[in-house]
Amino acid sequence: MLHTVTTSPFQSQALADCLRYSSENDVILLLQDAVVAAIDENNWCQTLKNSGRKVYLLQEDARARGLIDKLTTDVEVIDYTGFVALTITHDTQMKWA
């Protein structure tokens, strides 16, 4: 299953809920304000790393927030083509906002 998270974990429970209810075989895609979770050396970054889930991040959203050089290497940064590929690969999707 593909889980998309769009809100900052510092302002909502969406990422926490996603991690609580998803399984280790699921994939998480951080979009919009959720990309702040992947800033290197913050608590959410470590939580994502320890979750055992494959985590992706939309490059354009990180770039728009000036974060592209501050991201952990533990997430895979993808472009819109990669985003589309994820949606094609995963029949089931859940949005967390």
Automatic annotation (TrEMBL):
A biological process from GO: tRNA wobble position uridine thiolation
GO cellular component, one term: sulfurtransferase complex
Superkingdom classification of source: Bacteria
PANTHER family referenced in this protein's UniProt entry, alphabetically: PROTEIN TUSB
NCBIfam families named in the record: sulf_tusB_dsrH
Protein name, as recorded: Sulfur relay protein TusB
Source organism: Photobacterium jeanii
